[in-house]
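As described in the Methods, two query proteins were run sequentially through the folding procedure within a single session, without resetting any intermediate state between them. The first query and its resulting structure tokens are shown here.
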Amino acid sequence: MALTINEDCINCDVCVPECPNEAIAAGPDTFVIDAAKCTECVGYFDEPQCADVCPVDAILPLAA
């Protein structure tokens, strides 16, 4: 269970401080989510906080 940030990301960085697992970092083109650290906020919140604050809906479930 993890999320990913797609190419719609505008590099606004509002998602970074929202992540309780510190799983989001700057990547070469957009921000990226470390799938090994991402829990989709289970155990912290009812909804993934990064996706809730993303202004362009660029944060989606990781494709299997």
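Immediately afterward, the second query was submitted; its sequence and tokens are:
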Amino acid sequence: MKKILISACLLGENVKYNGGNNFAENLVKLLEKYAVEIVPICPEVMSGLPTPRPPAEIRQGDIITITGSSVLSEFQQGANLTLQKANSENINIAVLKEKSPSCGSHYVYDGNFANRLIKGEGLTTQLLRQNGIKVFSENDLSELERLFQNT
């Protein structure tokens, strides 16, 4: 059975910065269809950040909360712990939450807390991809399904 990392918020776990989740029913149905073993992760929670927590965005190589505090070290730690988890479980595919400063795979917020997106990747996505792990977002389900069909 294929194992993949999934952002816990996409599975309905209340780990999002505001205490909520981003449940993705279509993703869960796809994973069930292909009998995929799910390994839920949340890099921010893994690093010890609380839920809820102030929203954070990438700004000029740092990760800053809306209150102006840097949480870069926590996000780096979460990325490293996620990579360790993937390696220890022999996982080479992840589905992570788009737009997140940890997990964004195509877009992240611009760092000004103005709800503007720019092309970019979160820290966890960058680290996983640098280490050969394929990262998808909840918006890439047709691409993910093609991958499942070909394995």
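DSSP finds five helices and eight strands in the chain. We note this only descriptively and draw no conclusion about the first query from it.
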